[in-house]
Specification:
The complex is a heterodimer of chains A (164) and B (116).
Chain A: E1 14-21, H1 25-30, H2 35-41, E2 48-54, E3 61-67, E4 73-84, E5 88-94, E6 103-112, E7 115-123, H3 127-141, H4 143-163
Antiparallel strand pairs in A: 1-7, 2-3, 3-4, 4-5, 5-6, 6-7
Chain B: H1 4-11, H2 13-16, H3 20-29, E1 34-35, H4 36-43, H5 47-59, E2 63-68, E3 71-76, H6 78-115
Antiparallel strand pairs in B: 1-3, 2-3
Classes of the chains: A alpha+beta (164), B alpha+beta (116).
């Protein structure tokens, strides 16, 4: 940590998620740029989307409804604030136009040989909104599964430490 | 009758684990149940200090206790960890799921482009 460049003040409001995908950067980037691609992978298993409007450009919007596996509909609204192909995408993500609780996500695409590393850095306006978003996404995915995973996680730790 | 500050500490798992010694207790309990004397000794705490921390951890549901003969054994209570797990897990797990599907989709796309 050099500490330069980023305000530590955002640390408790942000969530960073990264993933390495075994495909060239141009191709991974492309999957973020067209609704025919996005509709195939947006949301975890069992989710679908219905798009009302989609225009991939700075200032353009993606207005859509996300359908959860249990039938719940979630209004979603995204506008792009920066697009640098095939390196990065910055967007604002809310539930509707001018949503005061919209949050900013910065996606960075880095080449690693023939693979691509995606880093998504999401910064919420306040820590409370971050917690609320986590709650919302948690509600989306369903609680029982999480608790089961937690039990497995705790048991796994206990085993690991017991044998070391 | 609880004061505001006290209520916050004892009713909220997040406040409970803000205290480093309580985190040490939870870390130690991951390897299995222990009596308070063990915990105090291993973490270099006084017995009353360890007991006090355990009481707070029990009140927020992070630790449970059971009698085993003459001993009282303290262990992790996974139920109380739930809000913490949700807090770190909800959004992230949503995106981990999306990225799983993105990965599969991009592999298909790669294959299709190769065949074209």
């Amino acid at each position: 940590m050099t500490g330069a460049g980023r305000e530590p003040a955002t640390a408790d409001r942000e969530i960073v998620i990264s993933r390495v995908i075994d495909a060239p950067r141009e191709l991974v980037f492309e999957a973020f740029t067209e609704v025919r691609h996005l509709s195939r992978w947006w949301g975890p298993e069992g989710f679908t989307t219905t798009t009302r409007a989609f225009e991939f450009r700075v200032g353009g919007t993606w207005d859509f409804v996300m359908h959860g596996p249990d039938g719940t509909d979630y209004p979603e609204w995204i506008t792009w604030t920066e697009i640098v192909a095939p390196e990065r995408i910055a967007l604002l993500h809310g539930e509707h136009r001018d949503d005061p609780n919209a949050f900013a996500s910065n996606l960075a695409f880095a080449s690693h040989g023939t693979a691509t590393r995606i880093e998504m850095r999401t910064v919420f306006p306040t820590r409370q909104l971050r917690d609320e978003a986590v709650e919302k996404y948690h509600a989306i995915e369903g609680g029982e599964q999480t608790l089961n995973n937690l039990a497995a996680y705790v048991a796994g730790h206990a085993r690991k430490e017991g044998t070391s | 009758m609880l004061g505001v500050a006290r209520a916050a500490t004892t009713s909220d798992a997040f406040n409970a684990i803000a205290e480093p010694q309580r985190r040490d207790i939870l870390t130690l309990l991951r390897s299995g149940e222990r009596p308070v004397t063990d915990l105090a000794q291993e973490l270099g705490m006084s017995l009353p200090g360890a007991s006090k921390h355990l009481r707070v951890l029990r009140e927020v549901g992070l630790v449970r206790v059971r009698g085993a003969g003459k001993q009282r054994l303290y262990g992790l209570d996974a139920g109380g960890l739930r809000p913490i797990h949700e807090w770190v897990g909800g959004f992230e797990r949503f995106w981990a799921g999306s990225f799983d599907r993105l990965d599969a989709y991009v592999q298909d796309l790669k294959q299709t482009r190769r065949e074209e």
